[in-house]
Amino acid sequence: MSVAEGPTINTIAERAGVSIASVSRVLNGLPTREETVRRVLRAAEDLGYVPNSVARSLRNRRTDQVAFAMADIGNPVYLAMVREIQPVLKAAGYRLLLHSTDADVADELDVLRGLRERYVDGLIMSPLRGVTEDHVAAIAAARAPVVVIGSVPEGTPVDNVRTDSRTGVRLALDHLHALGRRRIGFLNGPLDTVPGGARAAAYREALDALGLPYDGDLVEVGDFYRQDGARAARALLGRAPDVDALMCANDLIALGALDVLRRAGREVPGDVAVVGMDDTDLASVAWPTLTSVSLGSAERGRAAARLLLDRLENGPREPRVVVVEPSLTVRASTTGVDPE
């Protein structure tokens, strides 16, 4: 090796007695055995390959990166969270990495177990199907702090940010009932998800509190996407053409329902009032604009980032729980009038 050429990963690999692939993994901060990291770092420093700042990062196993694992990177709820998480962490010198799990529990567990390799300094995650015993075990074994956005089992030793979607459903049904709606249909997402299960139970509870009977013909279960909302709305309207309101489990479902109602010649809100959930940016640009329950996506993201940053900067402490209260934003899809 000449001085002009400088050290390469080949010479580092030869000096450390490891493969070139192992050197590449270490220098790129990818999960690698501790012994391999030490040998590569020692060889790289001896050969003058690694800048001092990078060497220090490798020695300390600090990446200056935080990950956010969510079910669907395209869902506006998670985008609202990202817009709040990133500036909080960026101001403290951290980069934000995004990971879409597709609501796959196995993928979520892989992300958690990967924390043992310290590929990031901390993790914010939002498991759509809830926190299982395997999640709890993986969190306990993690070598980096974790914050969970969503419901967790009572007593789980993890920082947690949650909302109360049951109260949100009740706000929506109270609003529709006050407008004189009595045949209130419900378009929900999968029942094996935390929001789907909670909102199904809340719908029944709200009907009971209002003195309205539960009618299975007024309920359709699909998924949390626009096309599924459209399919669910067509199926429900086919069974119950006298429906006079639709409670939708999120805004994407509501947008699909609005498309179907428009094509069917049903006026909104004259014939059918529609309420969404999450109060995403889509609600204010829908036609008509969409009345929606806010579950504080932005607030939840900001709170999660602050909890994680506190852990990173101040170390261990008792787990904290932050609860964000829902609210209802009334727009033209239920009243015919846009807010001022």
Molecular structure report:
This protein is of the alpha/beta class. It folds into three domains: 9-60, 434 Repressor (Amino-terminal Domain), CATH 1.10.260; 65-164 and 298-325, Response regulator (Rossmann fold, 3-Layer(aba) Sandwich), CATH 3.40.50.2300; 165-296 and 328-335, Rossmann fold (3-Layer(aba) Sandwich). The protein is 47% helix and 16% strand. A six-stranded parallel sheet has the order 2-1-3-4-5-11, with helices on both faces. The longest helix is centred in the C-terminal third of the chain and has 18 residues, at 297-314. The chain is elongated.
Question: What proportion strand?
Answer: 15-25%
Largest sheet: 6 strands, parallel
> How does the overall form come out from the CA principal axes?
elongated
Q: What structural class results from the helix and strand content?
A: alpha/beta
Total domain units: 3
Query: What level of helicity do the residues show?
Result: 40-55%
Q: Radius of gyration in whole Å, from Cα?
A: 25 Å
CATH superfamily of the largest domain: Response regulator
Distance, first to last CA: 72 Å
Put simply, the count of helices is 14
Low-confidence stretches: none
Strand order of the largest sheet: 2-1-3-4-5-11
What is the CATH-assigned architecture of the largest domain?
3-Layer(aba) Sandwich
The pLDDT mean sits at 91
Predict the CATH topology of the largest domain.
Answer: Rossmann fold
